[in-house]
Amino acid sequence: MRKELSLRTPDDWHVHLRDGDLLTVVAPATAAQFARAIVMPNLRPPISSVAAAAAYRQRILQALPSGSGFEPLMTAYLTDNIAPAEIERGFVERVWTAAKLYPAGATTNSDAGVTAIDRIEPVLAVMERIGMPLLIHGEVTDPEIDIFDREAVFIERVLEPLLGRHPGLKVVLEHITTSDAADFVRSGPPTLAATITPHHLHINRNALFAGGLRPDFYCLPVAKRELHRLALRAAATSGNPRYFLGTDSAPHSRAAKESACGCAGIFNAPFAIESYVEVFDQENALERLEGFASEFGPRFYGLPLNQGRITLVREPQPVPALVEGPANDQALVPFHAGTTLNWQLVRRQTG
Ligand code: NCD
Ligand code: ZN
User: Model pTM greater than 0.70?
Assistant: First the structure.
């Protein structure tokens, strides 16, 4: 049995680092595991200008211990009114790496998102021309559509026609949760990829109701049936470069989750790589982890591979019930809280 694993330092291609006091708690957790991360722009107000993205990037760097070497890759929050010229300028000036499409109302802080995709046609045309990736929260917001079907319906109604209109546009379907999405990406054009979270590889929708209502397992897109979880595990461990790592770590305080209208989001940053290793180990695919975690993402984005390495050892890794938050009443419940994982991250070299 394999006891040690050495990997090229991984990157997280989808993370929520938040802002203010919470940023100082969660950004170091991501920086301790990953060399780079695609940082989601769904702040209040959203990051929809080059200036706001540059300022947010500085706040992230200031929240990290000196010498962490972590590189935040910024994204633009697309709105109905964002100017194509602003998108292009931010990309050319290397302030942002990609742009994020939130259908308005689909998830946390998405109210300012896009109300109909036709509204951003000129922006999409610019992105296609300059090679800027479009990152998509792939759920329809139509209240008539069952929440468990919203991803599959989005693919049919929005994504497929979009790829037809913009054959040169690089698209990442974020945090996929269904076999429909995994199949669509597998059989789609080489300009299409998907990120997969640790939680969607570990839990199905039963976790939300195990012994009572379990807000710590609530996120969007919501976990689906077991057959979908199995399809995601097969996709992630397949060695297909169109699927890569994106944690969607999305912290909310325990109080905000355990309320009458609890927030969507799972905070998996502290033990993210250990969580993925567990899955690849269970699937007898440890040799395929490096591609998924450290190579396929940068290749899709056209960025250099990290030169550093990390080491994991097969040693019990207890996960605390709570992680200290920025204030007494703002503790965070990490994914896998109160359980013990089988692998430990022991060394992190930058470079
Ligand atoms: C995210 C958040 O809290 O910002 N929540 C989540 O459940 N994943 C938003 C998102 O990515 O959908
Ligand atoms: Zn997200």
Answer: yes
